[in-house]
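Re: How this chain folds, sequence and tokenised backbone to follow
Notation: Tokens come from a learned vocabulary of local backbone shapes, not from coordinates.
Start of record: The labelled sequence and token lines come straight after this line.
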Amino acid sequence: MQAVEGDYSGFEFFIVPSNEGDFLIFQSAEGWPQKPLILEVRIGGTKISDNNLIKFTHPKMGPFEGRIEEDGLIGEFTQMKYEVKLIKGKSIWQP
């Protein structure tokens, strides 16, 4: 997510563990930050080479499939054909 002259835009994803599995805190912004969503997330696959895979379903944007890389996350909301590239780093909300 970024802020330019008080207008926020983009996405932030936070992956957090719990006793009920992993969850994703998802926040988007178009002019102003939207309410964060907590979504179930699946990380990894059936093969060792799939350890970096991430999948979740957003209630409006649909399924997301991506890969966690060393410097960020690359993926796509598959139904919308909307590509997302996020750089790993501090949240916009962190000083």
Notes: The chain has no helices and eight strands. The chain has one domain: 2-87. The longest strand covers residues 7-16. Residues 21 and 40 are 8 Å apart (CA to CA).
